[in-house]
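Design a sequence for this backbone.
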């Protein structure tokens, strides 16, 4: 039975589409360019049914790069139509293509189709997140933008104070207006956090996992929500090791022969937002949890630098979080288990 892989290069306003058969007898063929909206998606599927006449849509597999907000309307629409789509990391596809000279949207769509044909074992079908989890993610990202704005405004005031110009008439106006803006932003942040709590309380699974996470010293409201949002409520990223890799706190080494052996820098491949909130959680846990403090002190006594020991604590917190969700229980700081002797 024939199977076809359909590569889609997504941009803000358009999508370029190519397709290829699974038997490696032909090279990918370019279909056309469509608008990045429901009308364009409908026309794309209509043209595919014409070109691939006799092949059931159940034998199609769409593949696109993860481009943030640009590809999600396409993925949602295809899933609603009962079609299968695979979102793959843009970096993964790019590094698999070897040496390329130049690029354009047409060639990219053909390369994506060819990648999907060559690596069907890596396919992970896109599923729509629950409405509540999607809302929680939107609120979390909005809160993050509000916090960034508040920090930027506070830094402007500090800069005026450092230059000694805060007493001028123009500076007084800037400071007065900035303070008013900070007050407004802080109020919006509180309202956003309350809206996040309302969403969590309206969903049984979210509320249960949130309660388990909050029982850990160091896991405040923001950290608990971040873990649920980026892990897909612990289903999209099912293990602590995978989440540690995703947020850049898992370590990897590069070795070759006897002369090359060093720790690889993977920060550029990580989610910096999640890594940052986990750092705050680790520092808080060291201050307020005796078990974590003992664990941190043992790592530093072994000669590990402060940053490495903090990273160990972050890893330990992730494993505890996943264990709590898996076992459906709250954290007991007095519980003695194997990790305290590791």
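Sequence:
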């Amino acid at each position: 039975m024939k199977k076809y892989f359909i590569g889609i290069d997504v941009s803000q306003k358009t999508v370029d589409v190519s397709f290829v058969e699974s038997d490696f007898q032909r090279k990918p063929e370019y279909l056309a360019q469509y608008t990045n909206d429901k009308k364009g998606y409908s026309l794309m599927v209509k043209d595919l049914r014409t070109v691939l006449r006799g092949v059931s849509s159940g034998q199609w597999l769409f593949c696109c790069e993860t481009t943030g907000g640009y590809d999600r309307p396409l993925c949602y629409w295809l899933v609603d139509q009962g079609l299968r789509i695979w979102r793959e990391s843009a970096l993964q596809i790019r590094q698999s293509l070897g040496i390329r000279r130049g690029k354009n949207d047409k060639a990219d769509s053909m390369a994506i189709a060819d990648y999907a044909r060559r690596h069907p074992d890596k396919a992970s079908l896109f599923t729509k997140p629950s409405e509540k989890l999607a809302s929680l993610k939107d609120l979390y990202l909005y809160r993050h933008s509000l916090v960034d704005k508040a920090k930027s405004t506070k830094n402007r005031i500090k800069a005026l104070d450092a230059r000694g110009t805060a007493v001028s008439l123009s500076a007084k106006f800037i400071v007065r207006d900035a303070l008013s803006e900070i007050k407004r932003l802080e109020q919006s942040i509180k309202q956003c956090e309350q809206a996040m709590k309302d969403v969590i309380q309206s969903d049984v699974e979210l509320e249960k996992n949130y309660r388990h996470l909050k029982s850990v010293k160091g896991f405040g409201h923001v950290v608990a929500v971040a873990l649920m949002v980026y892990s897909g409520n612990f289903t999209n990223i099912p293990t602590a090791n995978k989440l540690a890799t995703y947020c850049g706190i898992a370590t990897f080494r590069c070795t070759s022969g006897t002369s090359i052996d060093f720790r690889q820098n993977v920060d550029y491949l990580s989610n910096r937002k999640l890594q940052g909130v986990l750092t705050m959680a680790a520092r808080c846990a060291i201050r307020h949890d005796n078990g974590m403090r003992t664990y941190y002190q043992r790592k530093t006594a072994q000669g590990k630098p402060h940053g490495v020991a903090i990273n160990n604590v972050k890893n330990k917190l992730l494993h505890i979080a996943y264990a709590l969700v898996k076992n459906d229980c709250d954290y007991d700081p007095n519980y003695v288990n194997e990790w305290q002797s590791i």
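Residues 131-163 form the longest helix (33 residues).
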